[in-house]
Amino acid sequence: MGGVGKTQLAAHHARTRWQSGNLDLLLWITAATRTAILSAYTQAAAEILGADPTDPERAARSFLAWLEPNPDRPGRRWMIVLDDLADPADLRGLWPPASPLGRTLISTRRRDAALTGPGRHLVSVGLFTPDESAAYLTTTLAAHEREEPADLLAALAADLGHLPLALSQAAAYLIDADLDCAAYRTLLADRARTLTDLLPDPSALPDDQLESVAAAWSLSIDRVDRLPPAGLARPLLQLAAVLDPNGIPAPVLYNSPALEYLTEHRAHAIGQAQPDQVTTEDAARVLRTLHRLSLIDHTPRSPHHAVRVHQLIQRTARDALGAQHHHRLAQAAADALIAAWPDIERDTALAQALRANADALARYAEDALYQDSGVHPLLFRAGVSLGDTGQAEAAAHHFQRMVEMTQDRLGREHPDCLDSRENLAYWRGETGDEAGAAIAYRELLTDRERLLGPDHPETLSARVGVLFYPGRAGDWSDALSAARQQLADHERILGLDHPATLNVRNVIANFQGNAGDAAGAAAAFEPLLQDFQRVVGTDDSYTLSIQRQLFFWRGMAGDPADAASAFEPLLHTMRRTLGADHSQVRMTLNHLAYFRGKAGDEAGAATAYQELAADCERVLGPEHPDTLAAKSGFAAWQRRTGESTVHQSTD
After folding, report:
1. Quick one: what percent of the chain has pLDDT higher than 70?
2. CA 79 to CA 87: how far, in whole Å?
3. What does the pLDDT look like over 580-601, one tens digit per residue?
4. What whole-number distance in Å separates Cα of residue 126 and Cα of residue 105?
5. I need a surface site. Which of 70, 117, 135, 410 has the fewest CB within 10 A?
6. Do residues 379 and 270 touch, judged by C-beta distance below 8 A?
7. Is residue 157 a contact partner of residue 120, using CB atoms and an 8 Å limit?
8. Distance separating alpha carbons of residues 204 and 166, to the nearest angstrom
9. In whole angstroms, what is the distance from residue 590 CA to residue 611 CA?
10. Three-state DSSP class for residue 310
11. pTM value?
């Protein structure tokens, strides 16, 4: 990509060879156009061969022929540098010849197949490493008697994506503006400022640089936007500019909302009232073109992270947008993410990538996701996805932010604010803050009864939350009585088969079990499972959860070995239908481990806990309470397995 230092590396190599006396001819060409290449060849031919400069094509052929190895004359040691080649087609018929004494060095942002092949070696030039970035900034600032904390320099380098050109120009800006690193990072994070505002003006660029970071890609963007299918490269890059720089799933850029945005933008760009609809094939071609010009990295074989874009290219693309366009773009990106989000997250890697992209969009364009009409559903989907993987604290934090934003933008009584508050209350309870969840549900119930009435379905939902937490705190008899009254209201208002009514029966059955009546809980879950299978389907996550709870209370009331046997096929079904990393899968594996241990299968319990610990660590992290609990269970049963082995051998 532009700005990584290709020209500097080429210059260093050429200068080193020239100064070592290993060259008879060194020719440096800024290869932005075919005309520039021809002009350089013509000048060389005129100076070396006395060729007629008024016929550039003929002079260039003479010069290239002179470079050819010839046994009848002494070998000439030469090096030709074609710097910043803009288009491989410009070299058609103008490639220097292969020669044992000659070397051609090309620097380019292009990745076309035409540039590689037999006798040509591709050297990819990447970004600085974190250590190289820190060393560069430290040395540059020290030369101006400036010193900054190492952690702030590392953070600044990360903000700038370790791009050498950006680091160079940011250091110059720090020095010229007499800013410290922390103040500059604050300015850089200000979305109201453009990247151009935070870099030196053209007269103050360091190291004889000719263009700022913000301008480094403008020529490439202009060029790629003219390539067929014309008018699509810029809007597709803009769409990628508000998503995760570390990887955008392929379906997000190929689905209907994305294609509608591209069609709309192309219509505006080329002035057509009814342009041809952009197709998936068009989008794929544009992605490959953007890749060829190093504006993105496109790796179709990694579909969950198919497109990567450097964060400063993203910043440059966003800076060119007006406020109205920015909002339309954010809405289109949010629509595309929702369209790509599966109803059941079987593919954990895809779900993680979608959440990362939703987070990136919220960072760049949060305001656009809170319209007068309400909150974009993407924000609710991302929060629930976090919770469903078992990341309750992250889900609670997500919905806390949504509550703050909806209260500020839409008002505390807006339906989306009330829904955000309910989600926050639920996930707060899942983190273990049952007192906080109970308070939140009571406040929500008060508002919904006042705004919607006592019999509204959303009021009933809040009432279930209110009755749930006294039970979890241990007051099972009062909670069970309240739940049964609530069931009567649900059946009267919503009907016997409404999912919310079935969920109240789920609460009642669990309350029975926790009150000490495991057999009664199991008996209540048996018809409830049949009703869930009939109403919502056999493989629905709620149905599978009911089945898990039925097996659990059966095990608590009867034979733990039978319970362990029942959980094994259920675990297989859940992994197939919900995905290996769904929270319900981990709960089922936990139950399996528990009942294996209760049945005396110490080795089987240890194995299950070990598997559970690995799953928890992969999904939730090594320090999550569930991970630590699973590791503790594994260690305990592993010790007991060892003790049993010793006793048996002694006997």
Report:
1. 96
2. 21
3. 888 899 999 999 999 999 999 9
4. 17
5. 117
6. no
7. no
8. 14
9. 10
10. coil
11. 0.83
Helix (H), strand (E) at residue 461: helix 457-472
Contacts of 601 (CB under 8 A, 6+ apart): 561, 564
**Distance between CA atoms of residues 326 and 584, nearest Å:** 39
pLDDT of 606 > 60? The answer is yes
Bin 207: left if φ > 0, else alpha if -120 < ψ < 50, else beta.
Answer: left
Q: What pLDDT band is residue 649 in, cutting at 50, 70 and 90? A: very low
CA distance 531 to 45: 89
Q: What band does 274 get if pLDDT is binned at 50, 70 and 90? A: low
* pLDDT of 367 strictly over 80: yes
- Burial (CB count <10 Å: 0-12, 13-18, 19+), residue 285: middle
User: What are the beta bridge partners of residue 79?
Assistant: 26, 103
Integer Rg of the chain from CA:
33
Instruction: Output the 3-class SS for 199-229.
Output: CCCHHHCCCCCCCCHHHCCHHHHHHHHHCCC
Please name the amino acid found at residue 262: L
At residue 81, φ and ψ (nearest 5 deg) are -110, 120
End-to-end CA gap in the chain: 72
Residue 238 and residue 254: Cα distance in Å, rounded? Answer: 14
Is residue 313 within 8 A of residue 241, CB to CB? The reply is yes
Residues 6+ apart with CB under 8 A from 160: 133, 166, 167, 170, 188, 312
Sign of CA dihedral 16, 17, 22, 23: negative
Which stretches within 31-129 are classed as H helix?
34-49, 56-67
Phi, psi of 230, rounded to the nearest 5 degrees: -65, 150
> From its phi and psi, is residue 411 left (phi > 0), alpha (psi between -120 and 50) or beta?
left
Of the given ranges (55-69, 184-198, 633-647), which has the lowest mean pLDDT?
A: 633-647
Summarize the confidence of residues 294-315 as an average pLDDT: 91
Residue with tokens 């609670």: 396
Write down how long the chain is. 651
What CA dihedral angle connects 456, 457, 462 and 465, to 10 degrees? 140
Q: Any idea which of 53-62, 108-117, 198-207, 595-604 has the lowest mean pLDDT?
A: 198-207
* C-alpha to C-alpha distances, 75 to 43, 44, 66, 98, nearest whole angstrom: 21, 18, 11, 13
Q: Which residue has the tokens 């999912």?
A: 499
242 strand-pairing partners: none
Closest CA to 291 of 313, 312, 309: 309
Residue that wins the pLDDT comparison between 192 and 456: 456
Whether the CB-CB separation of 379 and 355 falls below 8 Å is answered with no
Cα–Cα distance measured from residue 194 to residue 320, given in angstroms and rounded to the nearest whole number: 9
pLDDT at 2 exceeding the cut of 50: yes
Residue with tokens 């809980």: 521
Tell me: pLDDT of 434 over 90: no
Q: Which of 257-261, 489-493, 513-517, 531-535 has the lowest mean pLDDT?
A: 513-517
Q: How far is CA 534 from CA 385, 448, 460, 509, 545, in A?
A: 26, 31, 23, 19, 15
Which amino acid is residue 292, in one-letter code?
Answer: R
pLDDT value of residue 212: 75
